[in-house]
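Predict the 3D structure for this chain.
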Amino acid sequence: MIRIICIIIGYAFGCFQTSYIYGKLHGIDIRKYGSGNAGTTNSLRVLGKKAGAIVLFCDIIKTGLAITLVRIIFGAQYADIKYLLVIYTGAGAILGHNFPFYLGFKGGKGIACTAGLIIFFHPYMIIPQIITFFGTFFLTHYVSLGSLCTEVMLIIEVVVLGQTGVFGMEQAALNELYVVTVLIAALAFWEHRANISRLIHKQERKTYITKKNSDK
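Done. Predicted structure below.
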């Protein structure tokens, strides 16, 4: 039951659709422009760098707030599985972001929320993720590829930290943690299936930070 509660809390926070709200404040439905995705990258391309930064920040923070709330409410009572509750909360936030009920279950792809999960999960995970994403991005200029690489890194980090005792949980709880983490990554890959196809066929659009989003 506690796991379901954590998912519900995460989902409630995840449903705060930053890009949709920001777009509406500027007179557009972001889902009808660009890639049609209600997320950071499409906001950056359609509405500019300021919009992209605001959307990214808010989507990270909404996940962090959900995780913080769960830790405050349940942290002491469920200290032995606190990281498991965090992953369920993060998963709920990603589901809320990707499938907001009031927008016909059409939202984003969950990468910024996953970033929020990583940041608020454990400090050991942050630096490797920054290196993974930005290293991939600056080498290729593919946001999608960088995002997918962070999902793979998420699995690796969780398993390594779990098996080295950092999370302080029993193996059964760790196994459950690993399963949920893999499901989060699998959802990200599913949401990026069109991007993966374009990457394979060298048709994916590149994104540049130092100049207007244009291909070479």
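The mean pLDDT is 92.
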